[in-house]
Write a structure and sequence with these properties.
By secondary structure, this protein is an alpha/beta fold. It has a domain of 247 residues. It contains 26 helices and twelve strands. Strands 5-6-4-3-7-10-9-11 form an eight-stranded mixed beta sheet, sandwiched between helices. It is globular. Bound molecules: uridine-5'-diphosphate-glucose and manganese (II) ion. Uridine-5'-diphosphate-glucose binds next to strand 3, helix 9, helix 13 and helix 14. One of its GO terms (molecular function) is cellulose synthase (UDP-forming) activity.
Length: 730
C-alpha cells in the first residue's frame, strides 16, 4: 500500500531541528586535542629509537595508536550534533486521521524462560493501546521459542485487551503498559481482569502448557494441537494464529480493536534461522500477506511503549514530503527502566543510545539499534531509486491486501512465507529485508541501507517513547557485550567493511560506523594498559616520562582533556557524575573481559573451531538478585573465565600501587620520579577495582567472586610477574 500524502502541502512544518550549541566547542576541542595526540606519537617514536626495552615501548605505542584512531573516529559523533523537535499540533491540524497510514508492529521474543511471556504481553498491550486509529494498527508477535505458554499468554492478552484499550482511551492514560500502570504509586490495586491474566499466564509458563479447562473453544484446541509430541523449539512447523482481527473483534465498549497475530516461524535443523534478523524477515513477509502497512515498528519483547503519541511523532517525519523519498527509518533512543542509582554496569549506554545518535543525525542519520525504530517498508526492498521486486508479488511493499486477515487463502499464504526453505535461492538477508551475517543485525542492516542511499532520523522526545529492561548480573552484561563484539567484527571483516565499502558511499558517517565496528579492538590498549606499566613498575622499569619532564604533562593533559570532555557531554545529556564514573569503569572492565573474549571467540569461529550464536539476554527478575542490584552491588557468582583477567588486573594494580607507594616512602620522591605516572595509573585502576576487591575478600553472599577465580587469578599474576621479569629486560 502506498502512503497517502496529505491532501495539500502543509503550510506549517511538522518538525524542526537545531545544531547543538556545543558543536563549536567540540570543533575547538578537536583541534587542540589532535595537536596533543600528534605530539604524543612523536614522543613515542623518539623514545622507541633510544630505548633498550623495545617490546614494552612498542606495545605502548600500539596502544596509543589504537586509542588515537578510536578517538579520531569518535569525532564524527561530535562534528554536527543536532536536536530535533516534532510539532505534533501541526500534524494534527493538517492531516486528518483517516489519512494516517497503517502501521505494523513487530515484537520479537525467543525464550519463555529468559523472556517471561507476561513481559512480552505487556509490551504488546502498550502498543495496541496507542493513541492511533485502532483499525490501522496490527501487532505481530514473533515467537522463536515456539512456546505454547507464549501463545496462551497472547490468547489471554487478547481478551484482556478488550477491557484495557477502552479503559486507556476513556481515562486518557499516558502510561499504557498495564504492569507499569498497576504498579504506579497512585494505583495500588489491580483489576480482576488483570489479576486473572497474570495468574493464568504465569502458571502456564511454569507448567509449559495451558490447562485443558483454560482452552475454551474449538479454535484454541486446534491451535494447541500443533504441539505434537515431536515438536521442539528447533524443529517445528510454522504456526500463525490471528488472535484479534479488527474487522470483526470489538472491545467491551463496542469500539474497534487492532489486529493481533501470533507467528512462530518454521524451524528445522537443515536451515540456519539467522536469529533475530531471520525472525524479522519472516514477520516482514507474513505481515505483507495480511496487512502490508507502509510503516512498521520493530520492538524487543521487553521494550514497551511509554507514550501513546509515539506513532504520530514518527509520522511528523514520514509525512514530510521533502524527507519521504529517502527516509528509511525513524529511530527512537533505547532507554531503560529499573537502573540502579549509579547504573553500575553502565547498561544505559548513554553514548550509544542518546549522545552519538544526535551526532550521526547531523550527518545522515543515526544507526539502527534493533528496537524502537519505525521503518518505511519499502526501504528493505532496494535503494530509493532501485526497487528490488521480491520473488512473489504478494510480499512486495506495493501490493494492496484485498482479503481479510483471517481468511483461509491468506493464512495459507502466510504459512507459506514462514517456512524455512522459503528463503532458499532468494535475496532475503543479502539484498532484501534485514541483513544476515552478523550477530548485530541492527547495526549491520542500518549501515547497509544507509550505503544504498537511504537516510535515518533520530527522534528523541522529552518523555521516553519506549523503555526496556537491563541485565542484572555481570555475566549477563558480558554475554550481551560479547555478542555485540562478535557481530561488529563480523561486519568489520566482511566485504562491507565500513572504510573500504562505507567511506565511498556515506562519507563521514562511515567514520562513525567505523568507530563502532572497531569497538572490540579497545581490548588491546585496555589490556596492555592494565598490565604492562604495572609489571614494568614491579620490575623497576619506567614506561612514562619522569614527572619533572614536561612530556609527562602531555599524558596528563590528554587524559584529563579526553575524560573531561566526555564528562561534559555526559552531564549535558542529563547524566550524573556517578554514572559517568561507572561508565568509564565499565569501559575498562569490558576491555579485559567481554571485548577480549569476544575477539578471541570471533577468531576461533573464523578458524572454524567454534560457532557463535545469539545468546538471549535474560529479562527475569529474581528477588534476591534484584535486591543486590538495587543496592548497587556487583554480581559475580559464577566462575566464568571472563572474570579471570579482570581479577588479575585488579590484583596486579593493587600490588604495583602499594609497591610504588612504599618506594616513595622509603626511597624518596626524587628516586621514584620515573615511576610516578605508573604509580598514579595503578592507583587509578585500583580505585576503580574496589567492587572487585570487595567481591574477592569481603563478601559472603551468592554474588561474591568464586574462590576458584580468585586463586586462579592470583596464581596467573605470579606467573606473569616471573615471565615478564625476564622479558622486560629485552
Ligand atoms: O533467535 C533469536 C534471538 C533473539 N531474538 C530477539 O531479539 C531481541 C533482542 O535480544 P536480547 O537478548 O534482548 O539482546 P540485547 O543485546 O539486549 O539487544 C540489543 O542488541 C541486539 C543485537 O545483538 C538487537 O537485536 C536488540 O534490538 C538490541 O536491543 C529479543 O526480543 C529476542 O527475543 C529473536 O527473536 N530470535
Ligand atoms: Mn534486550
Amino acid at each position: 500500500m502506498e502512503m497517502e500524502s496529505p491532501k495539500t502541502q502543509a503550510p506549517l512544518p511538522f518538525h524542526n531541528y537545531k545544531l547543538l550549541r556545543r558543536a563549536t566547542l567540540n570543533r575547538l576541542f578537536m583541534a587542540v586535542h589532535m595537536a596533543g595526540i600528534i605530539a604524543l606519537l612523536y614522543h613515542h617514536v623518539h623514545t622507541l629509537l633510544f630505548t633498550t626495552s623495545s617490546i614494552t615501548f612498542s606495545l605502548l605505542l600500539l596502544s596509543d595508536l589504537i586509542l588515537a584512531f578510536m578517538w579520531g573516529c569518535s569525532q564524527a559523533f561530535h562534528l554536527r550534533p543536532i536536536r530535533r523537535r516534532e510539532l505534533l499540533h501541526n500534524l494534527e491540524k493538517w492531516v486528518e486521521e483517516r489519512d494516517f497510514p497503517s502501521v505494523d508492529i513487530f515484537i520479537c521474543t525467543a525464550d519463555p524462560q529468559k523472556e517471561p511471556p507476561m513481559g512480552t504481553v505487556n509490551t504488546a498491550l502498550s502498543v495496541m493501546a496507542y493513541d492511533y486509529p485502532p483499525e490501522k494498527v496490527s501487532v505481530y508477535v514473533s515467537d522463536d521459542g515456539g512456546a505454547q505458554a507464549t501463545l496462551f499468554a497472547f490468547m489471554e492478552a487478547a481478551k484482556f485487551a478488550r477491557h484495557w484499550l477502552p479503559f486507556c482511551r476513556d481515562n486518557h492514560l499516558v502510561e499504557r503498559c498495564p504492569e507499569v500502570y498497576f504498579s504506579s504509586p497512585c494505583y495500588s490495586s489491580s483489576t480482576p481482569e488483570a489479576d486473572k491474566l497474570k495468574v493464568r499466564v504465569e502458571n502456564t509458563v511454569e507448567r509449559g502448557k495451558p490447562l485443558e479447562e483454560h482452552i475454551e473453544d474449538e479454535e484454541m484446541h486446534k491451535a494447541f494441537a500443533k504441539w505434537t509430541p515431536n515438536f521442539t523449539r528447533q524443529n517445528h512447523p510454522p504456526i500463525i494464529q490471528v488472535l484479534l482481527a479488527s474487522s470483526k473483534d470489538e472491545d467491551v465498549m463496542g469500539g474497534m480493536m487492532p489486529n493481533l497475530i501470533y507467528v512462530s516461524r518454521e524451524k528445522n535443523k537443515t536451515h540456519p534461522h539467522h536469529f533475530k534478523a531471520g525472525a524479522l524477515n519472516t514477520l516482514l513477509r507474513v505481515s505483507a500477506t495480511m496487512t502490508n502497512a507502509p510503516i512498521f515498528l520493530t520492538l524487543d519483547c521487553d521494550t514497551y511503549s511509554s507514550d501513546p503519541q509515539t506513532v504520530k511523532r514518527a509520522l511528523c517525519y514520514f509525512l514530510d514530503s521533502k524527507l519521504r523519498p529517502k527516509l528509511a527509518y525513524v529511530q527512537f533512543p533505547q532507554i531503560f527502566r529499573g537502573l540502579n542509582k549509579g547504573d553500575i554496569y553502565f547498561s544505559e549506554h548513554k553514548r550509544l543510545f542518546q549522545i552519538n545518535p544526535m551526532g550521526m543525525d547531523g550527518l545522515q542519520g543515526p544507526n539502527y539499534v534493533g528496537a524502537a525504530c519505525f521503518f518505511y517498508r519499502r526501504a528493505l526492498f532496494g535503494s530509493p531509486s532501485g526497487f528490488i521486486e521480491p520473488e512473489i508479488p504478494t510480499v512486495s511493499p506495493n501490493q494492496i491486501v484485498q482479503k481479510s486477515i483471517g481468511s483461509g487463502d491468506i493464512l495459507k499464504l502466510a504459512q507459506h512465507v514462514a517456512v524455512c526453505s522459503y528463503e532458499d535461492q532468494t535475496e532475503w538477508g543479502s539484498k532484501l529485508g534485514f541483513r544476515y551475517g552478523s550477530l548485530v543485525e541492527d547495526y549491520h542492516t542500518g549501515y547497509r541501507i544507509k550505503c544504498e542511499g537511504w537516510k535515518g532520523i533520530f527522534c528523541y522526545p522529552e518523555r521516553p517513547a519506549f523503555l526496556g529492561d537491563v541485565p542484572m548480573t555481570l555475566i549477563d552484561v558480558f554475554g550481551q557485550c560479547k555478542r555485540w563484539v562478535i557481530g561488529l567484527l563480523e561486519v568489520l571483516f566482511s566485504k562491507y567493511n565500513t572504510l573500504t565499502f562505507g567511506l565511498p558511499r556515506i562519507g563521514p558517517l562511515a567514520i562513525a560506523y567505523t568507530h563502532y565496528a572497531c569497538w572490540p579492538i579497545y581490548c588491546i590498549p585496555l589490556t596492555l594498559y592494565a598490565f604492562i606499566p604495572q609489571l614494568a613498575l614491579l620490575n623497576g622499569v619506567s614506561t612514562f616520562p619522569k614527572v619533572t619532564d614536561p612530556w609527562s604533562l602531555l599524558y596528563v593533559f590528554l587524559y584529563l582533556g579526553a575524560s573531561g570532555k566526555d564528562l561534559l557531554d555526559f552531564l549535558l545529556e542529563k547524566g550524573t557524575f556517578m554514572r559517568w564514573w561507572n561508565s568509564q569503569r565499565m569501559w575498562m572492565i569490558s576491555g579485559v573481559t567481554c571485548f577480549l573474549f569476544g575477539c578471541i571467540e570471533y577468531t576461533l569461529s573464523s578458524l572454524g573451531i567454534a560457532m557463535a550464536g545469539f545468546n538471549v539476554t535474560s529479562k527475569v527478575q529474581d528477588d534476591e538478585l534484584k535486591k543486590r542490584y538495587d543496592q548497587g552491588v556487583f554480581e559475580f557468582g559464577v566462575a566464568s573465565p571472563m572474570f579471570v583477567p579482570l581479577t588479575m588486573a585488579a590484583i596486579i594494580n593493587l600490588i604495583s600501587f602499594v609497591v610504588g607507594f612504599m618506594g616513595i616512602l622509603t626511597r624518596g620522591m626524587v628516586n621514584m620520579e620515573g615511576l610516578i605516572l605508573q604509580i598514579l595509573l595503578s592507583g587509578f585502576v585500583a580505585v576503580n577495582c574496589w567492587p572487585i576487591y570487595e567481591a574477592m575478600v569481603f563478601r559472603s553472599d551468592k554474588g561474591r567472586m568464586p574462590t576458584k577465580t580468585t586463586l586462579t587469578s592470583a596464581f596467573l599474576v605470579a606467573f606473569l610477574y616471573m615471565v615478564t621479569g625476564v622479558c622486560l629486560k629485552i
